Amino acid sequence: MTKVIRTISNDILVENICFIPTMGSLHNGHLSLVDLGKKTNLKTLVSIFLNRRQFNDIKDFENYPNQLDSDVQKLYDRGVDYIFVPEEDYIYPSSGIETVSPNEIGRVLEGYSRPGHFEGVLTVVKRLFDLIQPSYSVFGKKDAQQLFLIKNMIREFNLNIQIIEGDIVRDKNGLALSSRNNHLSSTAKLKASCIFDSLLKTAESISSNKDYEEAIKEGSKNFVKNEIVLDYLELVDTENFKSPSKYSKKLKLLIAAYVENIRLIDNVDIEL
Ligand code: PAF
Fold it and tell me: Is 51's C-beta closer than 6 angstroms to any atom of ligand 1?
């Protein structure tokens, strides 16, 4: 029996919880994280909280789609145990909430383009972890830098939480599912599918000739003809999110780009 809750009571704290945080506007990517959570056979708790603090652009916050009724319905259909829909002042009471700042990895890529974003993410995730005290928590690999920083935070605060990582879910043209896709016209969605194509081609050329800079320069050229404005296309070592060294074996190619002024991110893994 699914329960919608506004606060975390003591009877929830005595359970073993698998926690799936979301900001709502749920799509099949989120639902795949819920499915991973259900596989743990623990009680599943999905939060829906649009966290103002992680939006560096207020317009982005205001335009974020709000579909609470259909979100709740989707989670009922999935059979989650708890749908946690807190009020803002429950998450952020006037005092006592610790702000969590990311390490230097929080200031590159997404962190560079969206100042304050990761501080907002880590602060709310730590607050939610403190409230819910889950044994497991599920995060998607699409937000690769977020996932890296959350794992780092878990180590730093010595939290006893296991992270489950969910694969990126894509539409039939390869576009990674995102709540922001709701803002794209169908033409823009088609144009945006070249993001994944280019990632795959660039990844292929990185693993075959290993001239990273040249491959990225070539890969970047694909976007102009599709009217896509590239923010970054960068390669990192998956282990430390820094530029790869000659010893790196697992790499991540990450992209952020604007299609019709909507910011999209994506990434692929490369094994050398
Ligand atoms: O990935 C998201 O949707 C958000 O950053 C999260 C983890 C729910 C925190 O607000």
Answer: yes
Do 113 and 203 belong to one domain? no
244 in Cβ contact with 203 (< 8 Å): no
Q: Is the C-beta atom of 145 inside 6 A of ligand 1? A: no
CA of 19 to the centre of ligand 1 (A): 12
Residue 225 confidence class, pLDDT cut points 50, 70, 90: confident
- Domain of residue 218, residue span: 179-271
CATH code at 109? 3.40.50.620
- Tell me which long-range contacts 62-70 makes (C-beta under 8 A, separation of at least 24): 63/183, 64/23, 64/24, 64/25, 64/179, 65/24, 65/25, 65/179, 65/182, 65/183, 66/24, 66/25, 67/24, 67/25, 67/26, 68/24, 70/26
148, 201: one domain: no
Pocket test for ligand 1, best of 33, 146, 164, 267 (most atoms within 8 A of CB): 146
Do 250 and 144 fall within a single domain? no
Considering the domain architecture, whether residues 125 and 207 belong to the same structural domain is answered as no
User: pTM of the predicted model, to two decimals?
Assistant: 0.97
Look at residue 223 in the predicted model and tell me its pLDDT: 86
Kind plus residue range of the DSSP H or E element containing 251? strand 250-259
